[in-house]
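Minutes, structural biology subgroup

Action item carried over from last meeting: produce the structure token record for UDP-N-acetylmuramoyl-L-alanine--D-glutamate ligase (Aliarcobacter cryaerophilus). EB confirmed the sequence was re-checked against the source entry. Recorded below for completeness.
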Amino acid sequence: MQNLRILGKGKTALALKKRFPNADLYDDNDFEIFDKDSNDLTIVSPGMPPHNKLVIASKNIISDYDLFYNEMPFTIWISGTNGKTTTTQMCQYLLEKFDSCYGGNIGVPLSGLNKDKKIWILETSSFTLHYTKKAKPNIYILLPITEDHITWHGSFDEYKKAKLKPLELMSETDIAIIPALYKDFKTSAHVITYDTSDDLCNYFKIDKTKIKFNEPFLLDAIMAIISRKIIFDDVDYDLINSYKIDKHKVEEFRDSKNRLWIDDSKATNYDATINALVPYKDKNIHIIIGGDDKGASLKPLFENIKDFDIVIYAIGSNTQRVLNYCEEFRISCVKCEYLEEAVKNIDKNLKENSIGILSPAAASLDQFKSYAHRGDEFKKFVSNLS
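Output recorded by EB:
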């Protein structure tokens, strides 16, 4: 292989360095020694945006998907704004006995996956897709797309363009399952479109009543069932129903007064929050919203919930933006700024038939180490209520 350069020094970059010990690693601190005239093959870590100075100064950029494309077995790529992780894990749960493994944007980086496995299931981010030039999946599962990662991509159009890029690269032997909104997108793949989970159940003859999950996880489960049915013409309702959802995803728990609280810290964009509220829309809702919104507009969230019986508790770096939206849509709001303060305020107002929910519609890094840290702190603050 020709000389290899890797931009970034995070998890993906270090995994690549382990696979290619002679590769050179660079981050922003190395810009002065970076050869801007080099034609060396350059792999960009997904976290580095296209406006990064190292990226701009590079000539021969590909993604790690491109780098390993010739080694890939049968692959299922899963993308979209919400549900990627759950769908990927559910697919692995249903396909593991058929010698599959999973990774990519979660778990094991691509360079660490076992190339002797028969199936790779890859959670695929818009960041990776932006830099991908030739790699393509055998099956592409695209969950609904809503505004996210605007700061990284520069615009919603560029974000959508990245999510739809695999369709441009796929061939007539490949299968793409995509929202009906994109049915006219030009591709050689065999395309199956959907507006709702019912559309998919009807197409694949899946009995929805035999699946135990409710939204927002029902669509994820159906996509996993479909992946197995496409490959092996087999449906196992008992197995999918035994799958356990990860922590911090619409995770219900009760406090010492038997009041219902929900940890949905994984909701890092407005669409995830909208979906999380579906099962509770008829209840009195006390919701914590705020954090790093990554430059995305939250207006669709407030348009969706304006008629709910709801009080919002604003936290994080976009506290003022949340307050402004609440004023615009005439939604009751309490300025808290910090998570512990929000929990204490909800405690004063939460009734037996109410719910207290952390579903922030924003990333966590403005005040926490991760969404998991935010969720753990939330549960700790609730457990400390007297």
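Discussion: The CA atoms of residues 10 and 45 lie 8 Å apart.
Next step: EB to file the record with the rest of the batch.
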